[in-house]
Amino acid sequence: GLRTAMTTMEPLTPLLGSKTSDGSSLDNSLKAMFPRLFSASAAPKPDEKESVISPDEYERVFLELTTNNSLEQLLKQPSILEEQRRQIRQEMESLAFNNYPVFLQTASCVTEVHSQMQSAVERLDSLVSTLPELSSAAQDFTKRTAAINKTRQQHVRTLKQHPNLLEILELPQLMGTCVRNLHYDEALDLEQFARRLVTQHGDIPLVRDVMVDVQRATHAMQSQLQNQLCGNIQLSTALRVIGYLKRLSVFGDRELRVVFLQCRTSFLSELISQIPNANAYIYLSKLVETTRSQLFDIITQYRAIFSMAEEQQTSLNGSATHDDDAAALDAGAANPDREDGGILFGWIVQRISDFIARMEKTLADLSDGSSLSNILNQCMYFGLSLGRIGVDFRSLLPPIFERAVFNLYKHNIIQAHQSFTSQLKKYKLFPIQQTMIVPTTPSSSSATSTPSKGSSVDTLSPPISLLDFPPAAALCNGVLTALNELRKCCPQALQFNVARHFESIMTTIIQQLRVFARETPLTPEERVAVQELSRVICDDLVPFLVKCFDALFKSSRRLISQEKLQTMMVDLFERRAVQNAVSDLLKATKDEKPLSEQLKSPETAPAE
How large is the angle between the packed helices 524-536 and 575-588, nearest 10 degrees? Predict the structure, then answer.
C-alpha cells in the first residue's frame, strides 16, 4: 500500500536543499533524523531480490511520503490506507476461500506424515528385536565360509585354465561354423580332435557333453554332403564328397556305395518329375534323353570313384582328368561287378525297370505310328549307348513296342469298324446302277488294284467300285489308315496277330451285314442293293485289303485267308437269291417297266 501511495504522489524535489528558519539546511536535518536512509548501505543492491520490506525501507517510504506530498494529501493518507487495508483483507479472504482444498490437503498430508512416522517407529522397534537372530545368522555364515573358500580355490584354478577350457567349449560352435561355410577339412580335423579328447578324458561330464554337440555338427555335415550328392555334380566334386564321407567313418564301403546310388537316384527322379507330361511324345523323348545321359554319368562316376582305393586317394588330392575317367570307364566295363557284390547291377536293373514301366505306361497315349517309330529309335540308341559300359537292354524293348503298335492298330481298326457301322446306318438304298448288277469277274475287279511286278505298297489303289458304296469306302479308308500307321513302325512279329485281328473284325462285319439284311425291313430293290454291297465287299474290298497286308509285311505266304472270308459272304449275294429278289421286284412293280429295261435305261438314278 505504501508503494502504491508513493507512486501516486508528485515529487517535491524543491524541499530538498531548502533552508530552515535557523538557516540550517533541510537535508542535514533529515539526515540527522533518518541516518540509515541516507547511508550508502541503504540503497538496494541490484542483484538482491525483494521479499519483505525492511525497517529502513519503511523509513525511506515515510520520508518520501512526508516530503513529496502536501498537507492535504497527508491528511488523506489515513483514509487511503484504511481503504487499502480493507481491500487487502478482502483479497486474503477471497484467496482463502478459493484455495481451501489446498489447506485441507495440507492438513491431510500432515496427518499422513504423522501416521507414517509412527509406523517407522514401530518398524525400528521390530528391527531392534530381530538383531539377535541376525547375529546368530552371521555366525552361521562365518562357519560356512570355509567351504566357500575351498570352492573359491577351485574356481581360481579353473580360471588359470580358462584359455584351454574355452577352446574345448568352443569346439561345437567352431565346427558348426566350419560346416556352414563348407570348410569340411577343418571340420573333420576338429571332429578327430574331439574324438581324441573323449578317449583321454571320457570320465569328465563336460567333455562328454562337448562330444555330443560335436556329433550334432557332424550329422549336419553328413546331411550337407548327401544333399550335394543329390544335386547336379561333376566327377571331381563327387570324389571329394565321397572322401569326406569316408573320413567321417559313418558308413562302411558297401554302405557308402548304396548311399551314393540312393542320392543319385533322388537327383534322377527329380529331373524326371520336372518333365512336362502334357504331350506324350515330348515327355517320352525327354524321358529317354534324360535317363540316358544321367544313367551314363552315374555309372561312370560310380565306377571311377569305387574302382580302387589308390584311385580314390589320388582323386581326392587332385582333380580328375578326362583320361582318368576313360580309364576308370574301361576298367568298369571289363569287370562291372568287381568288388561290388552286385550293388551296381541291382541298381541298374531297378532303374531300367522303372524307365521301362514309365515308358510303357505313356506309350499308350501315342496316337500315330511315326511317334512310336521315333521313340523306338531313341530307345535303341539309349540301349546302344549304355552297351558301351556293359548295360545293353535293347532286347527288352521289342515286346513293349509290339504291344503298343498292336494296340494302336486295334484302335484304328475298331474306329474303321465304327465308321462302317455309322455309314451303314445312314446308308440310303436307291435303285441299282447297271455296274452293280453286272457281276464282276476276278480279272476285271483286280485290274485297277493289282500292282505290276516289282511295284511297292505305295502303288496300290482301292477299287473304283467302292465309290458307289459309302459303308465299304469308309471301311476301306479306316483299314488303310490303320495299315499306314502300322507301316511307320511295323514289327514283323505282329504279322500273324494283325492278320487274325483283321479276320475277326471282318467276321464281325459279315455277321453285321447278315443281321442287317435279315432283320431290317427292306423293299425288294433295297434288298438287292444290300446284296450288291456285300458282293462288292467280297469280290473287291477283301482281295484289295489282303494284297495290302501282303505288301506291308512282304510275307512269302498269304497271311489272311481270303477264301474263308469270301465263303462266309457267299450266302449274302448268291445268284439264286438275286434271282428271287428280281422276281419279287417284278411282281411288285407290274405297272412299271421291266427290270431289264430299267437296267438298260441311262436315266436310272445312281445310288449314293
Answer: 160
**Crossing angle of helices 162-169 and 205-229, rounded to 10°:** 40
Tell me if residue 8 falls in helix, strand or coil.
Answer: helix
Nine-digit cell at 331? 576298367
Tell me if residue 561 falls in helix, strand or coil.
Answer: coil
Nearest to 554 by CA among 504, 486, 501, 495: 495
Mean pLDDT lowest among 18-22, 79-83, 171-175, 387-391: 18-22
Lookup: cell for 75? 491528511
Beta strand extents in 427-563 (DSSP E only)? none
Name the one residue in this structure whose C-alpha cell is 435279315.
Answer: 518
CA-to-CA separations, 589 to 11, 528, 530, 594, in angstroms, rounded: 165, 15, 19, 8
Mean pLDDT of the residues in the chain = 75
DSSP label of 605? P
How many degrees, rounded to 5, is the angle at CA 481 between CA 475 and CA 486?
Answer: 130
Q: Give yes or no for a contact between 544 and 590, defined as CB atoms under 8 angstroms apart.
A: no
How many beta carbons lie within 10 A of that of residue 234, not counting itself?
11
Q: Are the C-beta atoms of residues 12 and 67 closer than 8 Å to each other?
A: yes
Residue type, 552: L
Contact 47, 70 (CB under 8 A): no
Report the chain's C-alpha Rg in angstroms.
Answer: 62
Measured CA to CA, the distance from residue 351 to residue 585 in angstroms comes to 72
Confidence (pLDDT) at 132:
87
Q: What is the rounded CA–CA span in Å between residue 395 and residue 399?
A: 9
Distance between CA atoms of 253 and 340, rounded to whole angstroms? 9
Take residue 192 and report the three cell numbers written for it: 578327430
Q: Could you write out the DSSP letters of every residue in 108-132?
A: HHHHHHHHHHHHHHHHHHHHHHHHH
pLDDT interval class at 207 (50, 70, 90)? confident
For residue 275, give the 3-state DSSP assignment: coil
